[in-house]
């Protein structure tokens, strides 16, 4: 019987990719505001993409240690539902962003080993949602979207008092196993549904959503 797993497709840069994510049944769509990323979108582009998203699909803006000026510029133009903080934002900064924006905040936490799990407990007390992602390798240019998985067994028995998503190296071929091992109620993918960095593939998106929900 299909499970009620919700999917976030992150790093959408083109209208056809947004359409593919929505048609495939994504519950969340992510727009990356980080110029070093191949998935970065300018604010005007993000606005156009966001305006095509139907009600019921949550539009997530992803920033990395963004200052207020950037957040205000994004929020002033782009209709959004959730802010994803993907840098080293402290719990205090996160709370400040939430009250400035009036939006729920999802904090991304990188995991590579058991010692990384403490941060999930900390942010799980203050964030509205958690994104449990793979920790980027040392020296990586990007803090996320690296197509790298972590040992999902680290999450066995771990739960937090807020909704959470699993991310990191997921693709159609491994997402069902990742859900089985972690009990994740939601999953997030970027590289695993691309044909090249920043360019999504409609068939891969559809296969991913189907595999996650099968
Ligand atoms: O995707 C990016 O380019 C990116 C850049 C800077 C910070 C975060 C970024 N992505 C974060 C995400 O939410 C990704 O979907 C998540 O890390 C999973 O990525 P992947 O392993 O490629 O599926």
From TrEMBL:
<keyword id="KW-0413">Isomerase</keyword>
<protein>
    <recommendedName>
        <fullName>N-(5'-phosphoribosyl)anthranilate isomerase</fullName>
        <ecNumber>5.3.1.24</ecNumber>
    </recommendedName>
</protein>
<dbReference type="InterPro" id="IPR001240">
    <property type="entry name" value="PRAI_dom"/>
</dbReference>
<feature type="domain" description="N-(5'phosphoribosyl) anthranilate isomerase (PRAI)">
    <location>
        <begin position="7"/>
        <end position="211"/>
    </location>
</feature>
<keyword id="KW-0028">Amino-acid biosynthesis</keyword>
<keyword id="KW-0822">Tryptophan biosynthesis</keyword>
<dbReference type="Pfam" id="PF00697">
    <property type="entry name" value="PRAI"/>
</dbReference>
<dbReference type="GO" id="GO:0004640">
    <property type="term" value="F:phosphoribosylanthranilate isomerase activity"/>
</dbReference>
<comment type="pathway">
    <text>Amino-acid biosynthesis; L-tryptophan biosynthesis; L-tryptophan from chorismate: step 3/5.</text>
</comment>
<keyword id="KW-0057">Aromatic amino acid biosynthesis</keyword>
<comment type="similarity">
    <text>Belongs to the TrpF family.</text>
</comment>
<dbReference type="InterPro" id="IPR013785">
    <property type="entry name" value="Aldolase_TIM"/>
</dbReference>
<dbReference type="InterPro" id="IPR011060">
    <property type="entry name" value="RibuloseP-bd_barrel"/>
</dbReference>
<dbReference type="InterPro" id="IPR044643">
    <property type="entry name" value="TrpF_fam"/>
</dbReference>
